[in-house]
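Structure tokens please, single chain.
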Amino acid sequence: MAINNNELEAKVNAILQSLDSTSQFYGKLLNWQGADSFWHYGIGLSDTHIFDTGRGWQPFERHYVDAKFVLGIDDITYPPDKTIKRLIHALRCFKNWEYGLLGWNCEHLGRLAATNQPMSYEVKRQPWPIPQLNHDGWHPTAERDLRDYLLRHAPELV
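Here you go.
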């Protein structure tokens, strides 16, 4: 994706302006099926906005998609405030990473911010002939990279 610091801070400001901590979606991992038939992921900011952890890396109005809570993760998610803070730091940490379905995608980033698990089940389900090609859906360095970044910048979020 590789964005400069000004673009990044504009995205962070857009997140901060869209937040509503009273929303049931605030700080929650959400997913929706796109017109491309792939599942897309983001972090809820309010009743009206989601942060797209995919190529867009920006808040968008929720009424454009039928977003749902990601099932089966309630016992491993961070509290909403912590998820939002982790998301912002993750954007700073990964601002120069290239987005791609196999390597680093919206599900990896969304799950990492919300659960500390950079897993993409969408990738895991793909019928690649060599499972190591997609690391069985798990990003091999993202968890460590974010942890190291947080230890330097926001250790309370580790």
